[in-house]
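Moderator note: this is an archived Q&A kept for reference. The question asked for a predicted structure of one protein chain; the sequence and the answer are reproduced below.
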Amino acid sequence: MLLDSFQRVHNYLRISLTDQCNFRCTYCMPEENYHCHSGEELMSPNEILKLTEQFVKMGVNKVRLTGGEPLMRKDFSEILSLISTLPIKITLTTNAVLVDKYLDDLKKAGVKSVNVSIDSLNEDVFFEITKRNQFHRVWNNILLLLKNDFEVKLNVVAMKGHIEKEFLDFLNLTKIYPLEVRFIEFMPFSGNGWNSNMVVTASEMLNWANQSFSLRKMDDLPHATTKKYEIEGHLGSVAFITTMTSHFCGDCNRLRLTAEGKMKNCLFGKDEVDLLSALRGNESIESLILESVQKKHQTLGGQLVSDFHKIDANAIENRSMIEIGG
């Protein structure tokens, strides 16, 4: 069992397969020239399997594959096939551009739930955010996932200047599609230009929703990062990820592996442990994992304060989001 010093049990591992992406969203990727890790620096399929096996032996039973864009790995099918042999629930976060290519692999591996990152339903705004003209392909692949009975959650970063114009459009999707639309409060990472004035809070968005719809708060699941609501007469639901206004560190069960095999015990933490180098050097992985879990801070990586208005983004020691993994 992976138990930290605050008695939190960790059974959920998020594995970044690559720090490459076919989109260029500024809240994720730094504006300066960004150089991705080379092939030999990344975990190989067998190394991903070996590291995941060790985490499973220590109590992990859920794995989310992330990126960058995880489907950009040419060996994604191999990775998925290997870890699907383990006694774990596998989920995926993707921008959905390549979902149609890997649909059969996802089914074969028993993947039931897919999170799709999409920040606009307007083709022009989508291009402005992602710098790619791929809206229709993304939307068609969302529909493809629904047609094939996947549970689909849309991850929407609530960026001031955009979300005000499209918030109700996203909610209207849930009337005709069984989607969970999740609005994420804008979070600070290296190079993404964050400041507190750019945050649109969950309470603001909930007020917007209540002006047009009848919402009912749903029970929060253990370890939930979302506050979820049913909308009367809708097939889907709406949820808010309130990292900036009401963190959920109290029962956090998540650990992370970056694409080059560094373990992070918190999204906002600066501490990292190089598991891949240890694996390649035939060193003990178990002791390093235990050490990292024990060093986990009580809240927000020990770097952020609960009042987001008082956060100095320039003082945070961390990576860009694309380097950490979604």
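Archived answer notes: The first strand starts at residue 12 and ends at 16.
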